[in-house]
Every structure is written in C-alpha cells, then in structure tokens.
Design a protein that fits this description.
The protein has 339 residues and is an alpha/beta fold. It is 44% helix and 17% strand.
Length: 339
Amino acid sequence: MKPLWSLLYCAALLVSDTMATYHLSPGDPQLMAAQSYAQSRINRQQPIRTLNPAKTDAQCRSRPLDLVFIIDSSRSVRPGEFEKVKIFLADMVDTLDVGSDATRVAVVNYASTVKIEFLLKDHSSILDMKKAISRIEPLAAGTMTGLAIKTAMNEAFTEQSGARPRSKNISKVAIIVTDGRPQDQVEEVSAAARAAGVEIYAVGVDRADMRSLQQMASLPLEDHVFYVETYGVIEKLTSKFRETLCGLDPCAIGHDCQHICVNSNASFYCKCRIGYILNEDKKTCSLKQVKAEVMVDPCKCEARLAFQKQTQTAIQQLTTKLADMSGRMERLENMLGQA
C-alpha cells in the first residue's frame, strides 16, 4: 500500500501547486519561475534540427510558381538564428513541386547590401537547391528591405533570370523574412511589385515592425502577414505556407462532370468516355450520332430502272392514244355540224 499512498500524496501536491499557480498575479516571482520552468521543459522536448540537404520530405504538389525568398541577414540576426532561417527555407523547398516546368525558386539575401544567392533558372532539383541554401552566409549589416524588394523585381523576377512570361499565367510569389524595422522605404516599392503581379507574404520575427510588414504584404493582410516570437519557432510556418502554396485537387474537392474530371492547374475540365461527346454545357455527355450507311442492292437498282422505263413507255402510249381519240372526236363533231 505504501507506493499507492506515495502516488496519492504526490498527486495532491501537484494539484495544490497547480491551483496556486492559477491564482498568481502577473509579475509574481512564483509565476515567473513556473513559466520559466515550463518553457525550459518545452525547449528540452524540441528535437534539434539541422540543415540536411539530402533529406527530402515533400508532402504535396504545389501549383506552379515563380517563388523568390527575400531573407534578412542583418546584424540583429544571430548566426544560430540565421541557421533556423535556412532550415525554414529547406523545409519550404521540400513542400514544393520543384522543376523547370513546375515551381522555380530564387533566394535574395539582404542587409545593407543585397546579394542574389541563386536565380529561378539555376536549380531544377530539390537536392541542388537545398545544397545552395546550406551555403548561404549572413551579410551582417543594416536592414535595407526596400532595396531588396526592388532588386528582386529588377533582377530575380525577370525572364532572363528564369521567370516565365505572363502568357504562361504562372503565379509570382515573394516571401520576405525579417526581424527588424526597414531602414529605407518599403511602401512604394512593394506597391509597385504588387501592381506588377507579385503576391507578397511578409514574415516578421521577434522585433519586426508590424506596420512595415503590412505595407509590404498583399491583401488580405490576414492571409499574407505572419509573425513568430523567435526564429526558434519559424519552422512552424511551413505548414501555414503548405496550405497556401500547395496545389489543391479540384476534382477531388468536388466537380459536376458527368463522366471524367481532369485537373488543370487550379481548375478542371470535363471529358467524356469513348463513344460519347461533350455537350454545350461542357459538363454532360451524349452518345455520338453514327450515320448509317445504306447498302444499295444493285439488282434492286436495275429492276427499278426497268420499271421506270416501262412506266414511261406506257405513259407515252396512253398519251398517243388520247391524242388520236381527241382528233377523232374533233372530226366527228365537224361532220355532225355539217349535217
């Protein structure tokens, strides 16, 4: 019985401590100690993540994108934190359907200067892309976010750098990651980028200025502005972006095709099974109308021609007889008139 009593005693102490904690006021030393202890336990439970270029974990197919990451590596981003950013980029790449005909990715690194780490045309495989990400080094200086966006527009989102022409209707997306306040203007350059068709997501970390994030991001802001307390939890945003960027299966979601649904990027179209044609409503199908070929019996044709010939001869004979009878009648009337 001793072990049971010991367990009950420990449970009573735990409940007592928990109830006491809930009644502590903010700033109370006991509450702060409890929160610190809880946080240390959480930190111990989190697995240590490292950037492993060889590991791939793609879990969905993204819609084709021209995607440019714009990452802040100013002096406020510590080396360990910058490694977290690189892990975030690698995790993001894993969720994408990377390829020359699918999603193309570029990375723009910035501080007081801007460096294009690689262009949209440079890597067509996830492995090569993650190796390139692992080699990125922080620039460590100011925070010229506006300059970085302008450089991305002028040098990364161009056809010469691998962006596809507008006629292809490939979405252009920029994801900006920063932990500070821009030292230059971002509102006008961001507006110009959005007007050119670039969808902007702004990710703020720790000391990031929320107003600047909102000035950069596309509308609606609630779908394009993200904030995390530390770089240590930035990886949690991967699932958020997976929901946003990963392609949906319109046919799986629901369709009104009578026969066959075919996915086409973010939309779908209907097809019919063999032997059917698609109706004008582009949804329902009808049986193909088969023209029946009439096989003519040549014997029947000869018999018909012979019959027609006989009929024409008979008509001609009757016509001649009628003409003779008409002449006779006319002569008879003349004779009667003379009498």
